[in-house]
Design a protein that fits this description.
CATH class of the largest domain: Alpha Beta
CATH superfamily of the largest domain: Conserved hypothetical protein from pyrococcus furiosus pfu- 392566-001, ParB domain
Mean pLDDT: 82
Distance between the termini: 62 Å
Number of strands: 10
Strand order of the largest sheet: 3-7-5-6-4
Radius of gyration: 32 Å
CATH topology of the largest domain: Conserved hypothetical protein from pyrococcus furiosus pfu- 392566-001, ParB domain
Number of helices: 14
Strand content: 5-15%
CATH architecture of the largest domain: Alpha-Beta Complex
Largest sheet: 5 strands, mixed
Structural class: alpha/beta
Order of helices and strands: HEHHEEEHEEHEHHHHHHHHEEEH
């Protein structure tokens, strides 16, 4: 993550800006060289002073633990999909851990209670947890999961995890969007403005992310991967689903695309790119959202009246030549067309 782990996750959200993030040992540094007995006495006083400052809360002691990853679960409030992590997606991190002889940047965990199988849960550092587990199962059984314990409530844990995930390209827009949607209800009482302020995000951008989060799984299945669902192209698709007529057509098109994607995967061919999927879904919804032209027949089955347009501005009718009707009969056909529109809920607003 940029800037030394984002200034180590903004000093763990800077719960108390006045607190120093140091250890007692750092406070116990001996003064300038002096006689041995005087140096020992000064060092002991320094240690006692440092411990006293920790005890009073003036200084926060940071402890890094070496944990068995099997005793650490992953917090479900994180946007990253743990089950979708793979050796390939974590390869660079795995190689880095091996080269450095262990995990150098600690994860952030918090203690859990009432779970006999786990002692901690990961708030920030999901990929590190997965990578250490993989290494322990593949030739590095003694590898430990390095973590720092933090005392965080769920809302603070969410903000901390979000801060880490913002710089991660492998966390998709859809993952983050759905994570935001869940957090909006769980932590912010469905108050969008409050959530945007707490996360220091644009309210408009957050609103678009929440809209994309509403995409149903049946539509997401049309893409080669959920990671292909990106904010900018997916937002118009999410908007189109607000139209009930278009939504039904888009869902049908998504089902066909999902089958097509499965066939391509089975044959070893490249899947359809997200741009093509978006274009086809929007086109299907637009085309099928339009009702079929309404045609009223005249004599011998020939068209007499066709409804060309019907919208808020009015109705446009076409009266055909060669309909074989008298003027009075043609007027009756026009009335039939208007009555049919009324029955369909598309009649003129009087």
């Amino acid at each position: 993550m940029a800037r030394k782990q984002k200034d180590y996750l903004a000093d763990l959200l800077a719960d108390d800006e006045a607190e120093a993030l140091t250890s007692p040992a750092a406070e116990a540094s001996p003064p300038s060289p002096a006689p041995a007995d005087r140096a020992r006495g000064t060092t002991l006083l320094g240690r006692e002073s440092a411990l006293a400052r920790v005890a009073t809360g003036e200084v926060r002691q940071v402890t890094q633990l070496l944990l068995d990853p099997a005793r650490v679960r992953v917090w479900p409030g994180n946007a990253r999909s743990y089950e979708h992590l793979t050796e390939d997606s974590c390869r660079e991190l795995i190689d880095s851990i091996i080269a450095e002889g262990g995990q150098k940047v600690p994860a952030v965990v918090r203690r859990v209670e009432g779970d006999p199988a786990h002692d901690y849960e990961v708030i920030a550092g999901t990929r590190r947890h997965w990578s250490i587990r993989w290494l322990r199962a593949n030739s590095y059984p003694d590898m430990k999961f390095v973590a720092q314990v933090a005392d965080l409530d769920d809302e603070a844990a969410f903000r901390l995890a979000d801060l880490e995930n913002r710089a991660r390209k492998d966390v998709s827009d859809l993952e983050r969007a759905r994570n935001y949607a869940a957090a909006l209800k769980a932590h912010y009482g469905n108050h969008l403005t409050r959530m945007a302020e707490r996360l220091k995000l644009s309210k408009g951008w957050l609103s678009k992310m929440l809209k994309v989060a509403s995409l149903p799984d049946a539509v997401v299945a049309a893409f080669a991967s959920p990671a292909d669902v990106q904010l900018k192209p997916a937002y118009p698709l999410a908007q189109a689903l607000d139209d009930k007529d278009r939504a039904a057509a888009i869902r049908r098109a998504a089902g066909g695309l999902a089958k097509e994607q499965a066939e391509l995967r089975a044959s070893g061919e490249s899947p359809l790119p997200s741009a093509e999927v978006i274009a086809r879904l929007l086109a299907a919804g637009h085309e099928r959202g339009k009702p079929e032209p309404l045609v009223i027949s005249g004599a011998h089955g020939r068209p007499a009246v066709t409804v060309q347009t019907c919208n808020r501005q009015g109705v446009t009718l076409r009266l055909h030549a060669g309909h074989g009707l008298s003027e009075q009969e043609l007027i009756v056909r026009v009335q039939d067309a208007l009555m049919t529109l009324d029955e369909q809920g598309r009649g003129l607003q009087r």
